[in-house]
């Protein structure tokens, strides 16, 4: 990978988004969470899209989600990714609601819609810790003790 | 809104085929726009000084007014150069005329995307796009590809499901002397087309080309004294779906349905009364999402509905008769408006739909719009 070109594609780390990147370094997915109504948002923004509150905290969230869709990029739009073509891009629906573009670590040959995924963290080509996702094996879930099924 | 007291009276567009023959870095979009405007004025018999409203897309209004010597329009501004703005600009023109803010509104669009090497991907975006580009994600086509991949998996859609749309657009383009691509393609050529954002192939993508479009909008009363039969805007409606990505969780279905419900109610017309469809086709899956959202085809099966000849020139609902964005020209929806007018007037030559009395324009995008055009 052309590291210099790749570095230019990364989000700038600012006062507004630094907690997200600190979370990646700590191996945690952290999202802005509205103090008034608990709505999570991604990417970072100035205002709660649900209640318009300006007040938020950064909370560590589950890191789980589902694979909403994916595709394989064949076109060389970015010099940084020229050597990676073809590469897979995933569209993740986080359990907390927001959607996120990402990539999959060691994806299986066959992917399924809405397959469970889990955030994993590691350095990118520049050394910055970033979030990617891994596909969870689909296994029957044991109902938790005392869970009510209707 | 019901706008049948408003009409399109003049249309103009570039010869996209000629412009495509060579790139020209010095090509001036304002010159192209002025040429299209002159054709639209000739088309209706008005003079430049009759224009008192000007809506510019992908063009700056100040430069445009200066280039064409239109110093004092009563209403003027520009709109961003995106495909969703073609429907929006016609809606604005109707509202401006109905409100009396101006009497004769010129709508102009131009691009020199090919000559300046536009790629519609890899360019700098806003502050949130870096969260996508860091994973190699870019281009509207790629976001549409995410929707189409999901659609395919949900409904068991085969690999060649977009071929009828690609072939139909090229068939129509071959009968349009202004079209960029006038050569038909077959199924084998479609399947041989290389992937861009797999599952989308190059032949699923709009062209990037140079050209301009103009149309003139005025009241039906004023329209009666002009050269040609006015084309009425029987109705128009819109609804946005705004989020961080060009990927709608329901493929713009709810927004399209919201627009369709109002449009069909207000006009008293429905899919069965539509003689010809002009569908915004930045990428071919958008046509499937549109046909389902606007109730032309059942949800989840538009890909089958388009495969049986219904959308062909002799079918019951001919689609993108000028060749659409993959064959005629990518004028971000504006040229589809012009084609609607030409079809209703019977001016479409070898591609004319017989007995064409109603045309519907539809655009499924972050701003969904649709109009129904009629002729007396
Ligand atoms: Zn809130």
Automatic annotation (TrEMBL), chain A:
Every ChsH2 C-terminal OB-fold domain range: 58-121
Organism: Spongiactinospora gelatinilytica
Record InterPro entries: ChsH2_C (IPR002878), ChsH2_Znr (IPR022002), NA-bd_OB-fold (IPR012340), Thioester_dehydratase-like (IPR052513)
SUPFAM superfamilies tied to this protein: Nucleic acid-binding proteins (SSF50249)
Any matching Pfam family: zf-ChsH2
Domain ChsH2 rubredoxin-like zinc ribbon per the UniProt entry, residue ranges: 21-56
Protein name: DNA-binding protein
From TrEMBL, chain B:
Lineage of source species: Bacteria, Bacillati, Actinomycetota, Actinomycetes, Streptosporangiales
Pfam families in the cross-refs: Thiolase_C_1
The protein, known as: Lipid-transfer protein
GO MF annotations, alphabetized: acyltransferase activity, transferring groups other than amino-acyl groups
Coiled coil: none
Residue span(s) of domain Thiolase C-terminal: 244-358
Organism: Spongiactinospora gelatinilytica
